[in-house]
Every structure is written in C-alpha cells, then in structure tokens.
Design goal:
The complex is a heterodimer. Chain A is an alpha+beta fold. Chain A has helices spanning 47-60, 64-70, 111-114, 116-122, 128-147, 209-224, 244-249, 275-286, 292-302, 327-333; strands at residues 3-7, 12-21, 26-30, 36-41, 82-86, 96-101, 108-109, 160-162, 168-170, 178-179, 184-185, 234-235, 261-262, 308-310, 318-320. Chain A contains 10 helices and 15 strands. In chain B, helix 5 (161-176) links the parallel strand 6 and strand 7 (181-186). Classes of the chains: A alpha+beta, B alpha/beta.
Chain lengths: 349, 256
Amino acid sequence: MAIRVVSGRGHQWLLTERIGSGSEGIVYAVDDPRALVAKLVPDPPDREAYRRRVERLVRQRREPRTVRLLSGSPTRLAWPMVPVRTVLGGGTDSIDGYVMRDMRLAYQPFTHLVSPAARRAFLPGATWATALAAAEALARLLAELHAGGYVVGDLKPDNLWVDTQGRVGLADVDSWQFTDGREVFPGRMRTPGYTAPERIGPVGAPPDSSSDDFVLAVLIHQLLMSGLHPFTGHPADGGDYLSLDDNLLQGRCRAVDRTSVVLPRSAPPADLLPRRLASLFGDAFGGTRPHAWLWAEELAVARAAERLTVCAVQKLHVYTIERPWCPWCDQAERGMDSYPGADSARGAP
Amino acid sequence: MSTYEMGLADGCEERQPVVILLDTSASMGRPAESPRIDELNDALARWFDEVRSLSRLRSRVEVALITFDSRVRAYDARAESLVPVEGVASDRLFAPVDEVRPPRLTASGVTRLTEAVETALTLARERYRALQGQRVQVRRPFLWVLTDGAPSDAEGQPQDAAALAGTARRLRQGEEQGECIFQAVGVRGADLPLLHVLAPKSTLMLDSYDFGQILDLVFQSSDQLGAVQHADDAHRQVAERAARQKRMDELERKFR
C-alpha cells in the first residue's frame, strides 16, 4: 500500500502505513524526512465546506492567536500544515485531507496515563503528580485556545497526547469549531462519555467553550482519579445500568452525590482530592462549570511541591498533604493498586 | 479470586459483552485449495494475539464464541474446547477478550443458523442479567453472526423466510427491549435475502473483506456503542464504519 497525495502547489507525498482511524478520518504515516503524518477524510458531509475548513485552518497558522498556541516545544497542537488530496481518482472522487506533525515523536496516547493497565505498561514511573501536571497543562491549553476564539467540540482521550512529564498535546484540529470572520465552521462531532448534557440527544446543542469546560472536568477527574470516569457507577436505586451518558443525564455522579451510585470497592477513594478541587468537581457536574483558566490556577496550587507528600511505604504513591494517610494504600488494600511501581506485584492485571 | 469474579482489568470500566457466531458448516471448507475455514482460523489466532496490545478493548470487552454447523457449540475459553451449550452456565462461556486463545475450527455439516442465533440470544440475556445483578456497568451485548451460506434445518434442508420469522421476531424484541444489538455479516456465497429477514437493518455483505478486517470491524464497532437508545442508531453507525473502511481499502488497493 502506498497512497500518493498532492498539495495545491503540486508537492507530492507518499503515504505508507495506516496508523490510526477515528470517527471520520484515517491517519497515515508520511514518507518524509520531517516527522509528518497525513489525515484523510473519505466522506465529509460537505466536501467543499471541508476543503474550505482545512484551508482556513492552514491560513490561520500565521495569525497571532494561533502562533501563540503553536509556540513552545514540543508543539502542543497537530495543526494542519498543508491541505492535500489523493492523486488517483481526481475530480470529485479524490479524497481530501491534510498533512500535520507526527505527535508520536514527542508524546504517547493520553490513555497511557489515564488507564491503570496502560499506565503500568507504558508510563510505569508516572505518579499522581504527573496526573496533576497533565491536568494543569490540559486546562491551560484549553483556556488559551478558548481565548483565541477556538472551541474543540470533540474533546476526548483519543484526540489527546501526553508525555512522561505530563505535557499535553491535542490533535484533530480539523474538527474544531471556529470562524474566519465571515464564515463559521461548526463543530458537530460528539463522543459518548465526553459530551456535555445539553449536547446529548438527537438534536444536541452546538458546542461552545462551556461544553468544552464540562468535558475538561470529566478528563481532569479521570486523570486525578486514576482513570475513573466521574459518571461511573451502578444506579443506587437498583435500576439497570445503561451508559455513562445515562448516568450523566440522571445526575448519578459520586462527586456530586455519593449516594447516587454504587462503585466497586476497589475504586479510588473519593476523599483523595484536595478540598478545593473536590468542590470544583461538585460545581462542574452540579451545574456551574468552572472555566478552564480557573482549573489551571487551582491545579497549579494543588501540585506545588509543598502541597504534595510521598507515601512512606511506596514511593510512587504521591498524594495531597490535606489527607492524613495514603489514599493509594487504602485502595491497594481493597484489591487495586493504581500506582504499583515496576517492582511490585500488587495491582498487576 | 479469578479475574472472572473481579471483573475485567480494573473493575471500574464499562463491560461490553460480545457474542460471535461463526459458521463452520461444510461450505466453509471451500474452495478446496484454500478453504475459508483456514483463513478464518488464521485470522482468529492473529486477532486474539494482537488484541493484547489494545488496552481499551482489553479493559472492556468480554467474548463468547459460538460455532454452528449441524450442531451448535460454544467455546469454553478456560477448558479450551468447544462444548454443547446446554448444561454450561452462561457466565462460564464469556471470557475477557485478552484471555481467549481461539480454537482451531473445522468445517462440516449443515448450517443451523437459527438455532445458533436463538442460543446466542439466551446466552446474552442471561449474561446481561447476571452482570446487572452483580452491579457491573454492563452495556447491551452485541451479537454478530458471520456466515457464508444459507440457514438450514436439522435435516439440512434450506429454510425459507417463513421458517426464520420466529427467530427474526425474537431478535427484534430483544433489540427493542434493550437486551442486545444484532448484526449479520455475510461473506462469499451468503444468502443475503435470508440474512435480511433476520436482520433487516443490520445485514452487511463484506465479501471484499478478509476475516481479520471483519474482526476489527466487529470489535471496534461493538466498543463504540454510544448512549444510543435505539438499536437502529447502532446499526447505522456500524454500516457507516464499514462503508468508510471499504472506501479506504479500495483506495489502498488502487495504489498497490
């Protein structure tokens, strides 16, 4: 397999292997000395609109708001660099897409930090401090892109990247909602478990910075709670479990009402959070969503060295000084060690 | 305590039961020079080997394999053998996806498709109720049937649409009551009109796919089941995913 794509200026690239496929597009490795990948979107709902969308994003790379977002190393965003289309087929049959930076060079998939099993395998040195760092980096990135007038819309683990230091990257920029001053390019993708309540259902509301802020809180909860989704749990009223979104719509959430759900005994303890962050989660899932910048500020406070302590028994157990003893040891005693370390058999899958 | 009692991986993830019904009738032994059943066996072995690197599926999906030819049997993953379904607790027939070492299947006999589907429905319902009872966050079981032929009765006579009506009705009921999602996949030679009777909105003809791609589609779409309240939405999602996949496969072939 070697698909060839061409840019508007006639530059050709050879796409080699398929490295991922998402809800709309498929990502290929690119044969190029720079670390690049290409995303092809076979069937956008409106081909012309999709082309314009990619062209505008590429043009906006030069605008000050975007230049700021793209500054720093490693680059936090897999911004579209060049629009391309497939060479064969031609005309209406060719497939559109774009070339972007290969995030795999600097980052790992976000789930490697979130899911306990993947963390053991890929980021065995990560601690709760890494999770706090990633949460702050994510909140800061989202606050900055909101300030730039961008809305992510489909914020979810599959679009996110993380490194060993807790730095965070974001891909799938072509699904964002933005405007070029004349035309609004709407965000319309939604992912179960990562959708604000007003966007769930057959006629969901369009995304805005507030719906992003809701999903940000979901992701921060997962980071700080060793992967636990905030709407995890079997309905306490004895009814059937249907889905995370159903729990969300019915207000079943441990962070808001501890009696609303039944969780496995081995779940991370609810009281492992600093009080201030616990209260922000209550707000986020209870109705008044904190802005991304507020999360960033509070997370910066919570992760300051003097606010953290290391467990005397297990050096990968890092927790807030507000808690008198180690929450991760508590969890380990109930059958699941979220941060077991490479040399420990506890918590092995 | 085994992982069966503990739940998959970390216990706080959702659980997605997937039942795969595999046609092992005589037609799967064709063509003689490269029998489809060999291709299926290779794909199963490879797929279940590679799934260990897919952390999301590993932590969520549990599988029951059912084969049907003149008999309907289920795979006991712990005993590593195909067993008659009767008399085996349904819980025992589901295993975490990364603990399944699939059997080497052989092809013979007729195609007891409807009997297999009825068996799968019962199995899925029992498992779903058991996990709800244990307060596991279980999603609706996904049922997939893969066939290259046409359903036959116990004597090997082809069944007509009327003979399938009862099973089709029970499938509809199961879907409407939120107990399962049913998808039919036809490969070379499958009797598409009859599959449509069983699964009017969820029959896919995937004869350009190899079995590995079909298994990818099965598990990726079973895992992406959203908060959709209606089975039709799930069927539409699966069809869209299959169409997109097909388009990209064709594109990649053109460039080969």
